[in-house]
Design a protein that fits this description.
2 domains, Rossmann fold, alpha/beta, UDP-galactose 4-epimerase, domain 1
């Protein structure tokens, strides 16, 4: 099967490409490198630099490469930025996906796996969160991802295109080889932010300590990036077997607070740094913990990295040697 990975030079996309190639898939990458890194592109993948909003470009790739299925990571994903520049998120995330689906329909490509997010749930009423729980995003990023899911649903109904939407929680960690890892600029994710502070001896900032949680800081479900990558491949195989469109949560089912992640990171690094509590960021829910029972049952997915310290160790190895 020849798979087109959109955003394959980015964090989760590049790890998925590595796993796809390890499993014998023929992989084509499209990335505009606005946030991705050419250094993260696997040497055995074919790479095209371009934007998914460029329909002529996309059509050319789909026709030339005779693509069988698509995995879609190409979206802006910074919560804080989405609140100050919402039109950027509607333009790239929604308009880009509309162009992509147009091109897929025209080229008779009927399988797509979509990178969604737990941000679609907002402040959940139930913990752990189930796929059929209420979706009420607190930020523009989550709203655009939810709108993209709805677009897939209606396009699927009209054109017999099948999709899997993967709502994952906090992606973290790095490839076990240390070759690729998380290299965002700016960085908004907790674990790499904490590790960078530890490496550079800078103060770690906590955004709010008055949440309705065990220690007042936000609680999140952390899932290793390689486990996420393998879930995308299982979703692709699920569709290849003729199964119907579906939505799955991906998480470890365990929540850790910001303070707990800082403590675990300090133990991994063997050092402590000062911590400063600042005001909350707009759009951050108190607690997000997944139920991944559905993915385990229907996809056969089983996370390999369940110890948060082991996850942090892979990230620390990457950040100490990061050359991107």
């Amino acid at each position: 099967m020849k798979v087109l990975v959109l955003g394959g030079a980015g964090y989760i996309g590049s790890h998925t490409v590595y796993e796809l190639i390890d499993k014998g898939y023929d992989v084509v990458i499209v990335d505009n490198l606005s946030t991705g890194h050419i250094e993260a592109v696997h040497k055995d993948a074919k790479f095209y630099k371009g934007d998914i909003r460029d329909k002529e470009f996309l059509n050319n790739v789909l026709k030339t490469e005779k693509i069988d299925a698509v995995i879609h990571f190409a979206a802006n994903s910074l919560v804080a930025e989405s609140m100050t520049n919402p039109l950027k998120y509607y333009d790239n995330n929604l308009c880009g996906t509309k162009v992509l689906l147009d091109a897929m329909v025209e080229n008779n490509i009927d399988k797509i796996v979509f990178s969604s997010t737990a941000a679609v749930y907002g402040n959940p009423k139930n913990i752990p969160i189930l796929e059929d729980d209420e979706t009420k995003p607190l930020n523009t990023y989550g709203e655009t991802k939810l709108s993209m899911e709805k677009m897939f649903k209606w396009v699927s109904n009209a054109y017999n295109m099948r999709y899997v939407s993967l709502r994952y929680f906090n992606a973290c960690g790095a490839h076990i080889s240390g070759k690729i890892g998380e290299a965002h600029n700016p960085e908004s994710h907790l674990i790499p932010t904490v590790l960078k502070s530890l490496i550079s001896d800078n103060t770690i900032k906590i955004f709010g300590d008055d949440y309705n949680t065990k220690d007042g800081t936000c609680v999140r479900d952390y899932i290793h990036v390689t486990d996420l990558a393998n879930a995308h491949i299982l979703a692709l195989e699920y569709l290849a077997k003729g199964n119907e469109s579906n939505i799955f949560n991906l998480g470890n089912g365990v929540g850790f607070s910001v303070k707990e992640i800082i403590d675990a990171s300090e133990k991994v690094a063997g050092k402590e740094v000062p911590v400063e509590v600042t005001k909350r960021r707009v759009g951050d829910p108190d607690t997000l913990i997944a139920s991944s029972a559905k993915a385990k049952e229907l996809l056969g997915w089983k996370p390999e990295f369940t110890d948060v310290s082991k996850i942090i160790e892979t990230a620390y190895k990457w950040h100490k040697n990061n050359r991107f």
